[in-house]
Amino acid sequence: MLSERMVEIGLPQQSDESLESAEWDQATEKLRDTCDGTFLVRNASNKDSGYTLTVRKGGTNKLIKIYNHEGRYGFCEPFEFNSVVDLVSFYTHYSLAHCNSSLDIKLLYPLSRLQENEGGENISDDSLETKYKDIHKKYVFKTRDYDVRFYKYTRLREEVNLKRQALDAFKETVQVCVDHLKLQEKMQTEAQPHEKNMFMDNNRQLIAKALEDDNIHKLEELYAHRESKTWKVNCTRDKAEKILTGKPEGTFLIRPNSTGQLALSIVCNNMVYHCIIFKTERGFGFAEPYNVYETLNELVLHYAVNSLEEHNEQLTTTLKYPINGHLVKKP
């Protein structure tokens, strides 16, 4: 191994006292894979005989002797530079070609052995490791905080969607009642005295039927999703496909799969699709980072109003109809 010592030069305006030494093999390693024009200056083998410039050219390291004669420096006589720094500064603007025709390149990128922080102090490997660990610790904390906030946001969004859906159902119910009241008033006004009782009985039956068809049915759908017995079925994949074949789009069930996990089977585009439901420490879900539902009920309620398309572009549907929704008693 060469016994030579390497001296690195920082920016051209630095003084001679700023030259830092390191092992020659380290310098060679540092220059590897650097771009053309990267350079460093090291002490020559004979410390009384000046320095050696190493510059990257054509993917290899080129060495040029820097002579020191009576305090003057240069590659050859006459030695025109007062210091190595002056020499380097000159060749950052002018090519080395006049010294060696094969070296048509400037000293573009000084190689620095030590990184510097904002205060100009050297940063050791231990300091960098400590800073990295501190940054990683903060990153983990921020990631967990984000997950918690995202989970809370998701639950609030589900709650808002469910309440909006219920509100829409009640608004429609009110409108049905208003329409029938207007109809009743009109018919009572136009009816003969002996027909009024008949019309009143008929209107009561119409209103009751409308309430049942337009409101109670929608409420049943909401209750159906909340009851796990309407969608949780202990069956195989093949059995699930037989059960769901021919059912309306959005009809679904949740079943165990062959690996002991849970799976969603759902009808979409006249086909039966199957999706694994993962259970993690944070909760249930179809994929990270969406495994945030504490229970299967919460997952079902979320995707009852949100499309599965975000997980699979072919699943352009929500969890509309639990396979056993008819088991829910009317409220």
TrEMBL record:
Protein name: Phosphatidylinositol 3-kinase 60
Pfam families registered for this protein in UniProt: PI3K_P85_iSH2, SH2
Aminoacyl-tRNA synthetase listed as a keyword: no
Species classification: Eukaryota, Metazoa, Ecdysozoa, Arthropoda, Hexapoda
Record's keyword annotation contains Kinase: yes
InterPro entries for the chain: PI3K_P85_iSH2 (IPR032498), SH2 (IPR000980), SH2_dom_sf (IPR036860)
UniProt keyword annotations, A-Z: Kinase, SH2 domain, Transferase
One GO term describing the cellular component: phosphatidylinositol 3-kinase complex
GO function term, MF aspect, one: 1-phosphatidylinositol-3-kinase regulator activity
Gene3D superfamilies: 1.10.287.1490, SH2 domain
GO biological process, one term: phosphatidylinositol phosphate biosynthetic process
Start and end residues of each SH2 domain: 1-111, 223-323
Top-level division of the source organism's lineage: Eukaryota
